[in-house]
Amino acid sequence: MMTRRQFLCTSAAAAAMSAHIPRARAAPFDLIIKGGRVIDPSVGLDATRDVAIAGGKIVAVEADIAAEAAETIDARGKIVAPGLIDIHTHAGRTKEGPPMALQDGVTGWVDAGSGGADNIDQIAAVARGAPQIGRALVNIARTGVIPGGELMDINAANVDLARGAVVRNRDIVVGIKARLSNNVAGTNDLEALRRAQEAAAPFNLPVMIHIGQSYSPMRAILPLLKRGDIVTHVYAPAPNGILDAQGRLFPDVAAARRRGILFDFGNGVVDHFDWDTVERATKQGFWPDTFSTDWNVMSRTTGVVDFPNVMSKFFMFGMPLMQVIACATVNAARVFPAFDDRGTLNVGAPADVAILELRDGTFEFLDNYKGTRSGRQRLFPIATVLAGKKTPARA
Ligand SMILES: [Zn+2]
After folding, report:
1. pTM of the shown model
2. Ligand 1 centroid to 32 CA: how many Å?
3. pLDDT for 364-390, tens place per residue?
4. Which of 72, 110, 137, 315 is the most exposed place for a label (fewest CB within 10 A)?
């Protein structure tokens, strides 16, 4: 990695040489993103900056970079953020998924349990062929997600087969997934989670659980989670969500956060959140650590639309923009070591950048129960830079 000082010296030397051989002069940068509002929560930056990129890496973030670049993006009036990382998607189901997500600013994704031991190899193949970094969670049920519920027969949760799936795909698998809702697991929720932990243990991997309308209450589920595990669909309505019958946050949930359990939004389509639960929980200070879409190739026609639209829902509820972007970038990167060098525009980081626009107007946002809330601002994906290259815009 080039330090800034080395970089400045190198460009000074290059400039001196080019004075003698002007025709051989090459632009010192491949790309400059000029004049945007750079919001990089990894370093607490929110200011007008130019971002210079060379060799697929961020090489400078400065107030005004005068040097030449092979290509320039005019980002005036736009937000320039680290590439978005979506930790709960189903982008691995088809090879068409990842390029679509890329157009929404998503430069890293996790497929959260589409596949189990029987079919994770196909998901892993899609991840390896994706333009951006794609990773996967192995569903503890060998079938992966199936209609009717993959854990209704607890024998589907086979620890040895799940471990084998991890071993075959160590480059892609970053954790284990268990869906615990009553319509997925019935009365098997706790046993399925125990088996997910058993499968994850030899590899020291996190487990992501999908909650909402489970047979068992959160006070029975949470003790089975370890530091670094993830609860997705955090605002799933009763029965057995994070709020008691009076709408108060269960003390067990706050305690779980204190011991390092992470809480993810997981927008989805059916039964995963309603506005009332979001409002009650956030009024008690219980915000998500990460957002995610529960995305698939149909999401543009559902209440998900795209990742920036999901982020806008929390902006509507009063989360500061810096925090909104943190939840979609650096916080997500910290969940899985595979994303260690992502979610930041720091010099030396891979040049994955999401260019967004915060538009004023009247925008309707949907929950999973046809509930609408109206917001005054919405984030739109404008352009994505992946490994220093501008990717084709969304049609
Ligand atoms: Zn999902």
Report:
1. 0.93
2. 36
3. 999 999 999 999 999 999 999 999 999
4. 72
